[in-house]
Structures
1.
Amino acid sequence: SSIPTSLDGRCGPNNNNQICSDNECCSKYGYCGRTDAYCLIANGCQSEFGRCNTSPTIPSTTVSSTPTSLKDKCGPKYNNQVCSSNECCSKYGYCGRSDDHCLIANGCQSEFGRCNTLPTTPTTTISSTPTSLKDKCGPKYNNQVCSKNECCSKYGYCGRSDDHCLIANGCQSEFGRCN
C-alpha cells in the first residue's frame, strides 16, 4: 500500500502517517508547511513525512508572475502583502501562527500581521482527555505517559510503529514502552 499524501495539511504519525506534498515539510506538531518553523531539523522537522532543512532558508527575492507563489507570504520582500485572519508575518516573510512567526523577539513584522510579545503557552485546563494533549507524551507535553501498550516517540507522539517504539529511533521509555 502506498503512503497517503496529505490532503488536509496534516502529516506524521498522529495523522495516519500522511506525508506532505509539493515540497513541504512536516513540523514536529504534525502540520505541513514551508517556513523554518516547519522545515528546520532543529525545530523538530519530521524527515519521514516531508523535506527538512539543516539551516534557515533565505527567501529568494525574485517575484514570479504567478500570484499563487505569494500565498502565505508577507512583508517588503513580497509586495508588502499582509497576512490573513489572525496570522503573523515572520522576519523571513512567511505567514503563520507559531512563535517563530508571531514573537517580536523572533522578528515578527507587525505592519503585515499580528505579533506577540510573549510565547504562546498551551492551556492547561484539566479534563478527562485534554484534546490538546491527546496522543502526546514526554517533556514537551507535561510529561504525559502514553496509554495502554503504546510507545512515546522522540517527537512526543504516542503510537505503536517502529518510529515510535524503537530505542534506535529515540523512543522515550519514561513515557511508554520501547523495543
Note: The two ends are 25 Å apart (CA to CA).
2.
Amino acid sequence: MLLLVDSRSTHSFVNATFAARIGAATTNISPISVRVANGQRLNCSGVSELGVYDAVLGVDWLAQHSPMQCDWQLKTMQFEDEGKTVHLTGVRSDGQPALGAMDAATLWQMHDSNEIWGATLLEIQLTEPSPDSGQPIPPTIQKILTEFSEIFEEPTQLPPHRQYDHAITLEPGAAPVNCRPYRYSPLQKDEIERHVSEMLKTRVITHNMSPFGAPVLLVKKKDDTWRFCVDYRRLNQVTIKNRFPLPVIDELLDELAGATLFSKIDLRASYHQIRMREGDEEKTTFKTHLGHYQFRVMPFGVTNGPPTFQCVINSVFSGPNRKFIITFLDDILVFSPSL
C-alpha cells in the first residue's frame, strides 16, 4: 500500500481502484465538497480516484490513532491499534538524487499504469552571474541623471531660510521644557557620539547653552542598527498646534483614476530640508553626556513637523499638484495615463 499522510486534510479518502482490488465493502453516503490542492472543489463520498496513492490519511485518522511516535528522519510511524503495534515506513530515497531521460512512449505507458501521477518539464541553464548583467540605462534617462546630478548627491550645506521655516510657538505662560537625560549603556553612548559627530559635520546641529533640554532615545531597527531620536513629548505638550490639513488618502487615490504609469520620489532626510525659524532653534535642544545641542533644521519628533512639511510641499508643487503629481508629506507620486 502507498499511503499519503496529510495533516492539512480534514478527512481521509481511499482510492476507488484500491478499494475494488482488495474487495472492500463500501457504503453510499452523502457527498461532501472537497477543496483539493489546486483550489478546485470536488464532490466526494470518501471513495475517489487518488492517482498514485491507495489512500489519504487525514486529521481524522491521525486523531483516532493518537498518540503515535514519528521519526521524520527515518520516515517511520508507530502506534497501537486494538492491542497491536503497527509500524508504517515512508518511501525513502537512497543515494544522491539523479535525473534520467526516457522516451515519450515509456512515459505514456507509465501514466496508463498509474505509475506516474504528475510530471513537470524543467529546462535548466547554468550561467555565471555577471556584475554588468543589469539592463543599460536608456540614453534619455542617463541625460536627465547627468543634467540633474546635484539632486542625487549628499548635501554639503544647510538649506536656505524660506517663507515656511519651522516655528515652535509655546502656549502663553509655558516655561522652558527641561527633562533629565535617560540612562545609557557604554554601547549606546558610543552610538550617540557617532550620530552627534555626523550631524555636526553636516551642520544640522550646533552646540548651545539653553534652558531647554530633551532626552535622547535610541530605537533598535530591524537590521540591529540604532535610530537616533529625541523625546520631544514634554515640549509637544506645551506647543500651540498647527492645524494645517493633511491630505485624505482616499481622495488621493481617487486622483489616480485612469493612470497606468507611476514614479515615486523619495526625499532624503525630508525634515532636514526645512530650516528652523531664527529664535526657535534653542527649543529643539537635546541633552547628551557630551553636552547640549540644538537643531538648525526641523528635527523629527516635533508635533508640528507634519503640517509644516505638508505646507512646504503644497507650495513647491502648487502648479502640477493633482494634474500629474500627488503628495502626502515626503511621499511624492508622479502619475500619467500614458507615455
Note: The chain is about 20% helix and 20% strand.
3.
Amino acid sequence: DDSKINNKNNSCREEEEDTPLCASPHSSTTQVEQTATSFCCSTFLNRKSILLCTARVFIRNKENKFVPVRAILDSASDINIISLDCANFLGLKKEKLFLPVSGICGPTQNASRKVTTSLSNLNGNYQWDIELMVLPKITDFSPATSLDVSNLKIPENIQLADETFYIPQKVDLLLGCELFFEFIKADKIRLNDSRLILQDTCFGYIVAGSTEPNSQINNATSHCFLSRGMDTLDKTLRSFWEIENVTCDSPPISEELNYCNEHYEKTHYRNSEGRYVVQMPFKA
C-alpha cells in the first residue's frame, strides 16, 4: 500500500525499493552483500527541506596544487571520507586498508582504500594534513531539489562557504568531528523570517537549517550521516594471536631437566599393548 509507505517517517528505506547510497557496485559473495551497505539513513519527506552544512574547500592534488571540491561538514562522523571519483580526479595515491564503517540503523560499508593529503581554505591561512577513507559514493545530490532563495535576506558583506548551497550538486568530501570544531568560528546570524542560520567558519559562512514547506519535495529524501570506523579485521586477528601465542623466551634448561630428557630418550619404548614405557629416573 503506497499510502502506508509514504506516511512512515524516520524509517529506513526498504532495500528492494532503493539502492544503498554507498553500496559497493560489485558483490561476489553472500558475506560481501551483507556488509556492503550504506551508512546513510534515509527518510521520506512530505513537508520541509533541511539544508546540510556544505562548503567549498581546497584539497591538494598529486601535482601539489589545491583544487576546490564540495564538502559536507559533519560533527557526527569520527572519520573523514572522500568519494572514489574525487580521489581519482585528484590523482591521489591510494593505500590499502580494511576498515568497516558503521552508521545509522547498524549497516556496515567496508572501506578498502585511504588517501592522505592536505586541506585548506580559499586564502590558505588555514591548512590541515588529513586522512580520508575512500568510498564509492557519499550521498546523492545535496540538496535533493532546488530551493527558492529569492526571499532570503543574506547580508551583502557575508562571504558564503558554498555560494550555490541551494542548487543540487554532488558531494566530494565528508569532513568529520576530528576537524569540525576547528572549522567553526564564533559569529552566527539567524536570518529573519526563516529557520536558516549562517554560521561563520574558516571557509566562510555555512547555511544550515530548514526551509518552508515545498510541495515539490514530496518524494525527496533526507540523509542522516553518522559514520564510525570500526576495529579492522587485521587488528582483531593480530590481537587474537598475541593472546594465544606461547612465548618462546623460555628460561635456560636446568641440569636436572636435561638429564631427564636424555633419560627418557634412552629408556622409553612402546610395548605390545601400544603403551609407552619409561624407566623411573633416580638420583645417584
Note: The longest helix spans residues 255-267.
4.
Amino acid sequence: MRTRRTLAAALIAAIAMPSLAAAQATTPSAATIERKLEAAPRVKLRPNERVTIREFKRRPDLRRMARSIDIQSINFAFGSAAIANSQYDKIETIADALRRILRRDRGARVLIEGHTDAVGSFQSNQA
C-alpha cells in the first residue's frame, strides 16, 4: 500500500498539458476524471524510490509513469492569468472529482498545471 501512496504522490491532473496525455477538448465528467486518476499505476515504485514533488516535476520519466488526465477545455482570458467566470463550472467539475479522490486517499498528491497564452512579461505569466 505504501508504494501505491508513493506513486499517488506523483498523481497528476494536468490541465492544458498536451505532451502528457491525449487532450480532451471538453471537460469530462467528475466520474471520468476519478476513474482515470484512480487507475492502477503504470509502474509501482519501491519505498526507497520515493521522490519529492520538485524532483517529480523535473523528471519526464516519472511523469510518464504517473496517472494523468489532460483537460484542455479551460481557457484563460487573453493576455491574462485570470480564468473567466464562464469557465468556473468546468473547474468545479474537476474540483469535485479531486475532492472525492482526496477524501478516499488522504495521502494522495495532485499536481495541477495550467498554461496561459504567454502574452506579457515573465512575471505576469507566473501568476
Note: Residues 2-115 form one domain.
